[in-house]
Structures
1.
Amino acid sequence: MVNTPRSELALTREAAKFSGSAVPVDWQILPGLSSYAETLAAMEARVKEIADGSAPESVWLLEHPPLYTAGTSANETDLLSATRFPVHRTGRGGEFTYHGPGQRVAYVMLDLSRRGNDVRRYVADLEEWIIRTLAAFNVVGERREDRVGVWVVRPDRGTEDKIAAIGIRVRRGVAFHGIALNVDPELEHYSGIVPCGISGHGVTSLVDLGLPVTMPEVDTVMRETFEDVFGRETARGE
């Protein structure tokens, strides 16, 4: 079953008419597998609503069917198997990445004009969100200055493997797209691309690291750590 978030999701138009000085971030966990193209269209509609002040900032947690996406910096030579899975060209930053079942995709739509208008800090906060989520499962996630995403050192293999990807776009001051955290995807599916244009390193997941966690367990932690980093509410502004 393919699930598509509606532009208003569970919100009614009446609920989207905010009052007060702070507004909770709308949090949605979508069941099943979500069509990439339809989800992107719904996300862009929500971004417009956020920019217009008619909808709250939003986070959608979901899974996609197997596919590759190409960001604005994608190098075509990094697409090693163009016919294996659908390839979606997208306006987010970054290069090629994989989405599929067992990977928790978080589309994060936050109004940076209410959050300091600092894109670098925002990306660092997304990294911090992932790092804190991993720490709750006793996994040490690390940043690398010369590589995007969050990395895990594998002393048993002598490698550093990528466990989460980050790619964003900003439109009218609202950041969207977000992160992809590997919980238990089919890691072999990454073999059709050079993930994020970075060769010489592998990919891993929580289950690959020996942690038999479930998606609902990860979702619970992600919500808690999100609020630790970004807060539960945002100032509405005028």
2.
Amino acid sequence: MSFIDERKKEFYYKRAKAEGYRSRSAFKLEELQKKFYVIHRGDIILDLGAAPGGWSQIASKYLKGQGMVFALDKRPIRPFEDKNIEIINMDMRNKSLLDFLKERVGTKADLVLSDLAGDVTGNWGLDADRQNYLVEIALDVCDLILKEGGTFVTKVFRGPNIKELENEIHQRFEKLRRYRPKATRKKSAEEFFVCTDFRGKSDELEG
């Protein structure tokens, strides 16, 4: 059986298709929401690397018609019927992102989501380093556009340098909690960090 055929038989893949979500990973965010309540009605949310859009769909669901989800990706994203989701076709390292957000909603984001993922090679250490480099880029975005007291939810890979990444997060956020959703594939090294009470990039980190 090919990888594609195997994936199509997966419970969460079938469930996503049945419920109209664009990716099986949508259920990971739903689990995180039910456990940590990271999404609140009226929030301004930035979904990094949003394509194909499953996380944006879940985020909008819990906004309950108030607030906005900005689905950001340099890759094309198929338009959403949901009026609470707006697509931003931009690289997340673009410094004009803050200007865009302030012009569009007049404020910074309450929540930054990142299900960013690079190509997996099968080399555990290399894959962890690549994944956690993406987290570091996402942290740079938080420094730019996240409100004081805001929340950051990101995928990480367990690896030899995870402590260094945790230290960077602790210098920005008051609390870091870890969670591995049931929707994660058993063979995957991924887990999720829920980082709350953003206080900004410390002088120690900048030096």
3.
Amino acid sequence: MDDALARRFEDERPRLHALAYRMLGSAAEAEDAVQEAWLRLVGTKSIGNLGGWLTTVVSRLCLDVLRARRETPVEQVPDTVAGHAPEDEVVLAGEVGRALLVVLDRLAPAERVAFVLHDLFSVPFDDVGPILDRTPATAKKLASRARLRVRGVPAVPEKELAEHREVVAAFLAAARGGDMATLLTVLAPDVVRHTDPALLPPGAAAVLRGADEVARGTALFAVRAQTAEIALIDGDIGLVLAPAGRLVGVLKIRVEAGLLQAYEVIVAPEQLARIDIASPAV
């Protein structure tokens, strides 16, 4: 392995890591895929298009990991690997978009790889197809199907959706800062909050009523709110709780007349599985 080729690989490393992270949602697993690509490169004699070759190798490695995950119980899938701090995963998830990572996690492996390659990294379908061992036309269909799930289908008119997003964004900013004054301006006087008891300390009320009570209850979750992100929840604007891009809860929010009228915090896995989540930013 000559130094020139090693330098070219290092030039490609940031792009390859970004690609693998979007496919896998784990910085540790992404780094493993990139390192494996390096080991395979060392044993290869001649490569014409280095960037294309590395993209193919990393993508196929990621596809293998995604397929293996489908066969592994969730509790056995590690979030991190030694040498990668959990806080690094949180930062990366925030940079990519937690809602996007949550939705990508719900795609079939081939759909996820096709979408990431084409829609996020502009790889043409003529190249995506062979990576997936599919025709370009089939790869295009996979990406299209993934795109629909990522973007979701709004259940309310576009103008109303934008208004809801503005209210929820103000609510989230105030919740993150524990800003009681601002919370009281976005909450309806008779707002109601329902929270899964599993998320509360013993003896805490699962249902809060009235702006004062709900604002105080919301402010207590300022730390947790740091990793919340706006998403399309069952067709309307809500929030996902996804610290490292892994879904742990959602807030289903009802907005009317420019105020937040009610919200429900859901963390039970069986309930989360039935909720439609999309990323309005894509």
4.
Amino acid sequence: MAVKRAYYGSEADRDYFERVFQSANINFLIGSGASLPAIRVLGNIETELQRLIEDENEDGYFEKAATFLGSVWRPHEKLLGHSTISPVPAGLTDRLKQSQDNYDHFLTALERILTRRRTGLLPRRINVFTTNYDMFIEDAGIRNSNIILNDGFNRRANLLGNDAFDAGSFYHTISATGNLYNYKVELPTVNLIKMHGSLSWTRKEEKIIYQFPESEPSRIKVKSVRKKWVLSHCMILPRKEKFKETLLQNVYYDLLRTYSNELDKEATLLIVFGFSFADEHIETLTKKALRNATLKVLVFAYSDDDVTNFMAKFGEFSNVEIIYLPGKNLTFQVMNNIITCYLGGTR
């Protein structure tokens, strides 16, 4: 049976999380709930888009998809320094700053976990799997020079300098060597594995390169313009019928295989936050991986309702624990402090 574990910030809680993190291959699964309040959660948009596909309502599908992508783009216009938002939505600046702060603390938490590890037997590497398209982790990585963020773009696609995506790079280890003495130190690294693609992915000559598509047109009333803009994004839109394009299909399966392989390793830890497991592929792979008796999954539940939902999904698995905050909502900021409680928190 899965266990519900309340967090009180006690000495016992600190001892527990220290034991969990010191001796495990660490993985995170991050969903749309982590990017609040800058970007709203997906809600039931997958069901709505799937219904439009089944009804063969192409215009309705691309209108709904454009609205969804617009909500993702809106904070990135400001993040990238574009000036096409007019007027700026009320409260956007404050919401964006809050999400940036949360992700800054998240990367700081991962850095502290890796640098304070006492064992040399495990890699100084954490895998962050996410279905989010946003760029908040990459943005936070720019401000944290103490950790290497590997987003899969580490080889040149052409002479123009475009970086191409290579899923194999997530298995690389990065070390620093001293110039006077023959020593080698593994550098703390975070693999950012975006299973549904990213706002920064563009298709070029059967490769995925790091390049932003055009921002949302100021007037997107014309159906043909709306469709072209939606299709310019190299990402898997939220729908149950996910595969219509070979390049993305191959990348998606490669990344799902990486997820499955990492969870099959001995002494593995998976931390879940902001992810509802509405993605059936990822839910199925996670449940299959739970047959690995050395895998521990900690699901951080935002609310009491989420505790109930996660227990319904994973109640039969003894290596799953649902972490919750009694009488309060467990936010991303709170999770960052919980996972580093044995180190004094992120601040």
